[in-house]
Amino acid sequence: MVVINLSRGWPNPALLPTAALATASATVLASPTIWQPALQYGPDEGFQPLREHIAHWLATFYQLRCPLSPDRICITGGASQNIACILQVFTDPLYTRNVWVVAPTYHLAGRIFDDSGFAGRLRAVPQGATGLDLNYLRQELVAAEDKAHREQNLAPKVKPARPWTKIYKHVIYATPTFSNPSTLTMSLSDREQLLRLAREFDALIITDDVYDFLQWSSDPTGKETQPEHALLPRIVDIDRYLDGGPSDEWGNAISNGSFSKLIGAGMRTGWAEGTEKLAYGLSQTGSSRSGGAPSQFSASMVAQLFPTRILQNYIAHVLQPAYAARYHRMMCAINEHLVPQGVTPTVPKGTAGGYFIWLRLPASLRATKLAVLARREHELEVAPGNMFQVQGDPVAEKNDFDDGMRLCFAWEEEADLEEGVRRLGCAIRQALQER
Q: Where does the Aminotransferase class I/classII large domain lie (predicted)?
């Protein structure tokens, strides 16, 4: 029996636009006016044509109230690399109090924060079907500020003052739309209130907006029209207009985007958006100042996908239908094999998206033990909920997800998704019998 992996959050190779990338590469290498700058270090802010294309693309998709200047865009080496760069420029490991993480969270993000000096200072902000626990966050922010004042932690201790940077007191990290792993989408009200808290307490909100373009109707009949525009404004968009706009020239939000889920993680190309001041400051990360744009050649290739709408059409006519089919096939299998055993899937209203489905297990089962059983007895890899804890948070009841499990429908072949869920059903049945 072949192992089926419903844990791996990678795009299936068949869903990558290899033909379009081959053409884009040939175009770049055939034109000296493109390949000469593309093979150099590149400007700190990134490949200018791609910045311009992204600005127009985002303005259209998010239906922005006013034009989006390319000066708000900084090309990055992808979402993970860019989080590290954001922390290098805009935080101080002693002065910045905490990193507040919407939980459950992307399980590999914690190491990035640890490496920037925040080990032991990550704190979970619970999110459930009713929304973010904003009252808890406010309470904890007040406590953190009280502690900072008692300890006279009133100015950056490590980072020198520089004209291109601001050191924030707090960092808030979230994936607001089709979150990994919970699949929840933060409401507009919660986005606005979170931003108001960030302004009040001098926090920078880092949002991984990497799944927004992968959306479809949650109606399994296929009768509903597939969405063409974003479900909700990003927090960085809200920062442009809420209560008159940003409280200063830096703002309190940065959108972390990536082409990894759209054209391939190996391209190592993404973008960040914030105020013009924030975007420029990000481009001044030491590694960018030394080496130039972190993905200059790849960015020049990606730029070729925009003028004739290759990327936009690929998302609309290949990725959205393919992922919708995979999602509905897995949901159908879940309803057949898991729901009768007491498993509850997270089912969005209206619009679904992303890569994952989050399951709530019967009260008598623990996901960590079930995952071991599924691998040992049923040749199935699944991701138990506690994999997505905020590491080091001391408030256990706010940070325990061992009643949950994440399934990914992106990596395996579509035909194997149903079989994987069937195997999980067998593992659950076995676990219930062995209680």
A: 5-424
The domain spans of the chain are: 4-15+312-434, 18-310
Q: Hey, is 127 helix, strand or coil?
A: strand
Tell me the β-bridge partners of 215: 353
Q: In what side-by-side order are the strands of the sheet with 356-360?
A: 344-345, 356-360, 404-408, 383-384
Q: Is 223 helix (H, G, I), strand (E, B) or coil?
A: coil
Q: What is the mean pLDDT of each run of 10 residues along the chain (435 residues)?
A: 96 97 98 96 96 98 95 97 97 98 97 97 94 97 98 94 96 98 97 98 98 92 78 97 96 98 96 98 95 94 97 96 96 98 93 97 95 98 97 87 97 96 98 87
Under DSSP, the state recorded for 114 is I
Q: Give the number of other Cβ atoms within 10 Å of residue 347's Cβ.
A: 14
Sign of the C-alpha dihedral, residues 323, 325, 326, 328?
Answer: positive
CATH architecture of residue range(s) 18-310: 3-Layer(aba) Sandwich (3.40)
In the chain, how many H helices and how many E strands? Answer: 16, 16
Q: Contact, 288 vs 294, CB < 8 A?
A: yes
Residue 312 one-letter amino acid? Q
Q: Which of 11, 184, 164, 194 is nearest to 88 (CA)?
A: 164
Whether the Cβ atoms of residue 306 and residue 271 lie closer than 8 Å to each other: no
For 4-15+312-434, CATH number out of 3.40.50.620, 3.30.2290.10, 3.90.1150.10, 3.20.20.30 equals 3.90.1150.10
Question: What pLDDT, on a 0 to 100 scale, did the predictor assign at position 398?
Answer: 83
**Taking a C-beta distance cutoff of 8 angstroms, is the pair 287, 238 a contact?**
no
Question: What DSSP line would sit under 229-265, residue for residue?
Answer: S-SS--HHHHHHHGGGS-SSSS-SEEEEEESHHHH-G
Pairing relationship of beta strands 98-103 and 170-174 according to DSSP bridges? parallel
CA separation for the pair 30, 42 (Å, rounded): 19
Sign, CA dihedral 197-202-206-212, equals positive
Beta strands per DSSP E along 97-146: 98-103, 122-128, 131-132
Distance CA 189, CA 8 (A): 32
Spatial separation of the C-alpha atoms in residues 367 and 361, rounded to whole Å: 7
